[in-house]
Amino acid sequence: MDRTAAGWINGFIGVLIFSGSLPATRVAVMQLDPVFLTVARAAIAGILALCLLIAFREKRPSRQDLISLVVIALGVVVGFPLLTALALQHVTSAHSIVFIGLLPLATAIFGVIRGGERPKPAFWLFSLLGSALVAGFALAQGLTASPIGDALMLSAVIVCGLGYAEGARLSRRLGGWQVISWALVVSLPVMVVAAIAYRPPDFTDIQAPAMLGLAYVSLFSMLIGFIFWYRGLAQGGIAAVGQLQLLQPFFGLALAATLLRETVSWSMLAVTVAVILCVAGARKFAK
Question: What is the top-level taxon of the source organism (predicted)?
Answer without folding.
Answer: Bacteria
